[in-house]
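Data availability excerpt. The first of two example chains:
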Amino acid sequence: MKKTSKIMSLVLAGAMVLSMSACGGSTAGTAADTTAADTAAATAAEAAETSKEDAGEAKETSAQAADGTVYKIGVLQLVQHTALDAANQGFIAALDDAGIAYEVDQQNASGDQSACQTVASKFANDKKDLILAIATPAAQAVAGAVSDAPVLVTAVTDPAESGLVDTNEKPGGNVTGTSDLTPVKEQVELLQKILPDAKKVGILYCSAESNSEIQAQMAKEAIEAAGMTSQDFTVSSSNEIQTVVQSMVGKVDAIYAPTDNTIAAGMTTVGMVAGDNKLPVICGESGMVENGGLATYGIDYYQLGYMTGQQAVRILTEGASPADMPIEYLPAEKCGLTVNEETASTLGIDVSNLK
């Protein structure tokens, strides 16, 4: 395993966390200033100046000068945490690599569903060329508000089950995107490998997130198939995390936390309480491990976002229709093992056998 600041990770290497605006704020992202299109010379001059501060901006200004098209893109991210930030960054990187010019309106709902609705309505009124919604509640808000523009979703476990598309194979409307369905069975197998004596597993997730309920059911089935028993422990908001994790002490031998946005955003609290009580946490994705979990076998959210950005390019530049674009999944080789050595040491668990 490869060590990075006490954390062994085979995924999410080199992903930088995006700086996100608060809900209601707007940023140009890496977009070019539209006033720079007055003349080619002015554009080139501005690109040269901008490149001193942000190479991405210079690239997009140059692209604008070449064909005159600047796409208006809205991005609604449910909450700021490592996995969703990485998906956001991957999406933007794919746009940059395609060489298209765009203005991106970055919005973060800070985990507030009503804020998601407000931003979704704003995007609908702004007549964006394309909208990206990151995480299920954000995707549901945008899909409900926008019918006349392409909508891409990412970090959504099952778009069809969440009511976003007709089927994952043929979406049928203006919404498509990528799924972050994690290898739950393999994660439970990892739990058993690390904790062979575990008998009772607590499944920790937010009851308000449909994607988490789907994963919790998958985990329950995998845990029972492995000869263990499970118990659900749910929160309705981040304010309940500490109390709920404390309630697990003495009732379970380990915690399984799927790719739940509320839990991921509060993973530092989960890790603190669990660590103090010697409760190992197997997580749905590597960012949760880095923030206090023990281990995961999960997907690369940067690559997931990049794949979504490639879909955006096909829609914007090739005329592809979301209705005919199947929901895409990362291939198995994009999954990898992440172990937090510091957490393992705190828990007194030997992870040297994990390769």
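And the second chain:
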Amino acid sequence: MPETDVKLEESWKKALSQEFASAYMQQLKAFLLEEKQSGKSIFPRGPEYFRALDLTPLSNVKVVILGQDPYHGLGQAHGLCFSVQPGVRIPPSLVNIYKEMQSDLGIPPARHGFLESWAKQGVLLLNSVLTVEESRAASHQGKGWERFTDAVIRTVNDECNAVVFMLWGSYAQKKAAFVDASRHLVLKAAHPSPLSAHNGFLGSRHFSKANAYLEAHGRQAVDWALPSDVAGR
């Protein structure tokens, strides 16, 4: 993946150099090139595959939120889990995330679903799989991305201190099961999807718990309130 490897934020590029040089990543690159050459639309755009890492350098990571796949609708995905581009309808899971933020912190729901301001404050919004074919959910699972994002989580676990891992749903909890809870705060709840949010996500108070932990460890709390104007990105 030379076009993205070269541009990747330097701290991640150094930490993940062995992953990029590995056979599985070369196979993943070949798969993506073949998909594009066959005329398929792949989301997000190539420069945004690693957007979560570019916006949140390794030394800045305070919180990790794990998703599964990028949104597969036109114009939605831009490289951050749960986030959509400005002007796109807010997805149901994010609606529930906003409900919990309002209940927990009194923050009124944003009118957009663009979460870059979180990423710029140190919230790593990482999907397990970083690409998807248009209108085909989970179409790029099992192609190598999961191994790569496991390495990302392992790097945070090993090289950072006092990070909050927000693990929503069984998939995220299994993926990050190796995180050292003696060095980090691991928060678990149901997924914010409408199918499961009432089974423990709503009322979990993860946002206030995260900020209390960060401040107790000498780190700046996250301002979870999103800017009202995202037109300038």
